Amino acid sequence: MEENKDFLNECISITNTTIDKVFKIDSNDEQEKQILGAYLFGMFNGLGHEKNSTPVEIQGAMIQVANEKLKCSLESAVQFSQFLINSTDKGSHPTMFAIIHRGLEGYFMYKNGETEKLSRDFCDIIEVVKAATER
């Protein structure tokens, strides 16, 4: 049980650090919040792999972060986390699949203190998705 709390606390720490210091998003832009959520989900999976966390622990952390930090209702946070889980199948949603995997790589940038590289990586994703959806 204590390990669950440690994992959740580390996920919240990652979220707070990245939102406050690394990623710049418009908190009123739903698309940017979804991209951030997918990227964080990838980061949580990287941390979860290192900590031998269960999929349920990772999903629980994602629900809490989506609810508290991304300001989703609890119902929306649960639905979003399930959407992210489904998106780990490339055929389900290739764009979200790619963002989740970039977030997984982003976890290791975060862990190694490569905040500038992490910020660039995230900003590149935002730019590419925005450009593709504005066509």
UniProtKB/TrEMBL annotation:
Q: Which domain of life is it from?
A: Bacteria
Matching InterPro entries: Imm48
Among the Pfam families in the record, one is Imm48
Q: What is this protein called in UniProt?
A: Immunity protein 48
